[in-house]
Design brief:
This protein is mainly alpha-helical and about 180 residues long. It has five helices and no strands. Helix 3 packs antiparallel against helix 4 and helix 4 packs antiparallel against helix 5.
Length: about 180
C-alpha cells in the first residue's frame, strides 16, 4: 500500500517537484489515478457497447449467430458502467472543490448545467443497464423474437446515454484540464 500511496504522491506533485498539499478532501491524493481508471473503464464501456449494438442490429436482420458474444458484451458493458460510475463518485469530491466550484460555477454556469444533465442521464442509465442485462439473460433472441421490440430500443438508448456522457465528459475536461 505504501508503494501505491507514493506513486499517487509523485503523480500529484507533477513536474514541479514541490511538496504535496495535505489531503483535506476525500481521496484527493489519488485523484489522478482514479481519474485515469475512470477514463480507461469508459473506453472499455464504449467499445463493449458499440460492439453490442452492432450485434443487436444483426438480430433485426434475422442473424443470430453471435448470441454468446453479444451476451458477453452486455456483461462487460454492465460491469464497466458500474466501474465508471463508482470511480466517478470517488473523484467527484475533488472535482467539486477544485474545478466545478472554482471554475465552472463562477465563469461557466452553463457548463455546470451540462454536467448536471450528464450525471442525471448517467443515473438513469445505471438503472436501465440492470434492466437491460436482466432482460438479455432471461431470453434467447432467436427463439423469443417478440421481446426484441423492447430489447433493441433499450440497447440504442443505452448507447446514446454512454456516448453522450463520454462526449460531454471529454468536452468539459477540455474546458478546464482536470490534470
Amino acid at each position: 500500500m505504501a508503494f501505491f500511496e507514493r506513486f499517487c504522491e509523485v503523480l500529484l506533485l507533477g513536474a514541479s517537484g514541490g511538496e504535496a498539499a495535505a489531503p483535506g478532501i476525500f481521496l484527493e491524493r489519488f485523484y489522478i489515478v482514479l481519474l485515469l481508471t475512470h477514463l480507461i473503464a469508459a473506453g472499455v464501456l464504449a467499445g463493449a457497447m458499440i460492439h453490442n449494438l452492432l450485434i443487436v442490429f444483426k438480430y433485426l436482420q434475422g442473424k443470430f449467430g453471435r448470441k454468446k458474444r453479444e451476451l458477453y458484451f452486455a456483461r462487460v458493458g454492465l460491469w464497466s458502467y458500474v466501474i465508471v460510475y463508482l470511480f466517478g463518485c470517488l473523484i467527484y469530491p475533488a472535482f467539486r472543490v477544485y474545478f466545478r466550484a472554482v471554475y465552472f460555477d463562477v465563469d461557466l454556469s452553463w457548463a455546470t448545467g451540462l454536467f448536471e444533465v450528464k450525471e442525471h442521464w448517467g443515473s438513469l442509465g445505471l438503472a436501465l443497464f440492470f434492466v437491460y442485462y436482466y432482460l438479455r439473460k432471461s431470453f434467447e433472441p432467436d427463439v423469443e423474437k417478440d421481446k426484441l421490440w423492447f430489447y433493441v430500443p433499450v440497447c440504442v438508448l443505452l448507447n446514446i446515454i454512454v456516448w453522450y456522457k463520454i462526449i460531454v465528459g471529454c468536452y468539459l475536461s477540455l474546458l478546464k484540464g482536470s490534470f
